[in-house]
Amino acid sequence: MKGVAYWFFLSGVIYVTLGMLWGIEMGIRQSFAMAPAHAHLNLAGWVTMALFGIYYHLVPRAAARGLARLHFAVATLGVFGLVPGIAVSVATGSEGLVIAGSLLTFASMLIFLYTVATTRG
């Protein structure tokens, strides 16, 4: 695995490692208020990023497009906004960051939809 596929997959592995540590910490403390943020770190961070990486690995033509690098940047910013945004929202009720992160995550999926629809093996 190389290029953007590698970066997507590596970031996914980092996110799931952090998600596991966070889940263990919540379990030790028996405090699960941040479970929604933890779940989104695992879903948007691990599952989605890893699947993007696998796709780009399997379809090198898609990975070679400049759009793939933009996709990585938007997806990463989405995770960076979504997960802390959920945590902030749970803690304070403030929703600005979670809204921005959600929109970036959705934009990332639209980029991926376009990529899959316009790039064949």
Describe the protein.
The chain has 121 residues and is an all-alpha fold. It has one domain. Helix content is 88%, strand content 0%. The protein is built from five helices and no strands. It is globular.
Task: Write a brief caption for the model.
The chain is an all-alpha fold and 121 residues long. The protein has helices at residues 3-29, 35-58, 60-64, 66-92, 96-118.
Helix content: over 70%
* Major β-sheet profile: none
Strand-residue fraction?
A: under 5%
Q: Tell me the count of domains.
A: 1
Outline type: globular
State the low-pLDDT regions, or none: none
Distance between the termini: 16 Å
Mean pLDDT: 96
Number of helical regions: 5
Index terms:
121 residues; single chain; mainly alpha; 0% strand
Fold topology:
Layout: H1 3-29, H2 35-58, H3 60-64, H4 66-92, H5 96-118
Helix pairs in contact: 1-2, 1-4, 2-4, 4-5
